[in-house]
Write a structure and sequence with these properties.
The chain has about 300 residues and is mainly alpha-helical. About 80% of the residues lie in helices and about 0% in strands.
């Protein structure tokens, strides 16, 4: 019992809340920034193709999103209750328990926002998807591509590359290799602008903290000293760069070559025919992005438990 109390301290619970809400935020932003973007940037998609892909993307996302919202909000609210007698004032001028309650409520607000702001568009998209899958698509479904694209864009602003961005393309029925390659190229360009700066900030932060705390003899839960664990966290982030160059670059280059030829109007017969290779390269890229996500998640856990 004492051992459990020593592990599940209010500080540890707050860290759990930070980790889960941080992952949830990243998941949400990557959906709006990449998952939805990958569909909207796929040239020539019909409204039915978009709606079916959205329906599958949506069902996949809620399996992750809702549990994380619950873990995050409960962690903050539990910690606020455990620290209710604290008079410590935060940088925002609030007491610790009040600020933790606000953090928990902020996470929970995602649920009514979903119900009130997002549900109408989601229901319209899923209705088009259901009719298309049953072979009952109406003339309106075929014609009103503008409405479907607008609903999809609206949903996007409020869910991860490997889990949603790639999945949304692979689940779009009838896509040609050229359509997939062009969408991938645009996703990659957009993702790189965000991912590389964040990797730099993250790894440098861990290494700086490790150096600043180099004299610390504190032993973490993993039995490592604080500076060593922080350095390992930094290395875990940096490992994503050689992983990209060695494991992912060949497939990326093939996909971008197909995209480039198509955009220039110089697509070869092989580009049109070899949909299996393009889909395999896209799936492989998505799987490897998932590996990079695991490496970064390991860094998050190591960093959060180092102090």
């Amino acid at each position: 019992m004492n051992s459990a109390h020593s592990i599940f301290t209010p500080l540890a619970i707050v860290k759990l809340g930070i980790l889960s809400s941080g992952f949830t935020a990243g998941y949400a932003f990557s959906a709006s920034h990449l998952g939805v973007y990958s569909l909207l940037q796929s040239p020539g998609l019909t409204s039915s193709q978009i709606a079916i892909a959205f329906d599958r993307l949506f069902l996949r996302s809620i399996d992750v999103f809702h549990p994380l919202v619950g873990i995050s909000s409960l962690s903050y609210l539990y910690a606020a209750r455990a620290l209710r007698s604290s008079s410590h004032e935060t940088l925002l001028g609030l007491s610790t328990p009040v600020q933790l309650v606000l953090a928990g409520v902020s996470v929970l607000l995602a649920l009514p926002w979903t119900l009130i702001r997002m549900m109408p568009g989601m229901n319209r998209l899923r209705a088009v998807s259901s009719r298309a899958e049953k072979g009952e698509a109406s003339a309106g479904d075929v014609a009103d591509i503008t409405t479907v694209r607008a609903d999809l864009a609206d949903w996007g602003y409020g869910f991860s590359i490997s889990h949603l961005g790639v999945y949304s393309l692979l689940q779009s029925p009838g896509l040609t290799s050229s359509q997939i390659a062009i969408a991938f190229d645009r996703i990659l360009t957009r993702a790189t602008k965000v991912l590389l700066p964040l990797l730099g900030i993250s790894s440098l932060s861990y290494f700086y903290a490790a150096r600043a705390l180099q004299s610390s003899t504190h032993e973490t839960l993993l039995g490592l000293s604080t500076p060593v664990q922080l350095a390992v966290a930094g290395l875990s982030v940096l490992l994503t760069i050689p992983w990209t160059r060695i494991k992912m670059t060949p497939g990326i280059n093939r996909l971008r070559a197909v995209s480039s030829r198509t955009e220039k109007g110089a697509a070869s017969a092989g580009d049109v025919a070899d949909i299996t290779t393009v889909r395999a390269d896209l799936a492989d890229w998505g799987w490897n992005m998932g590996v990079k996500g695991v490496l970064i998640s390991v860094a998050c856990v190591l960093g959060a438990t180092a102090l």
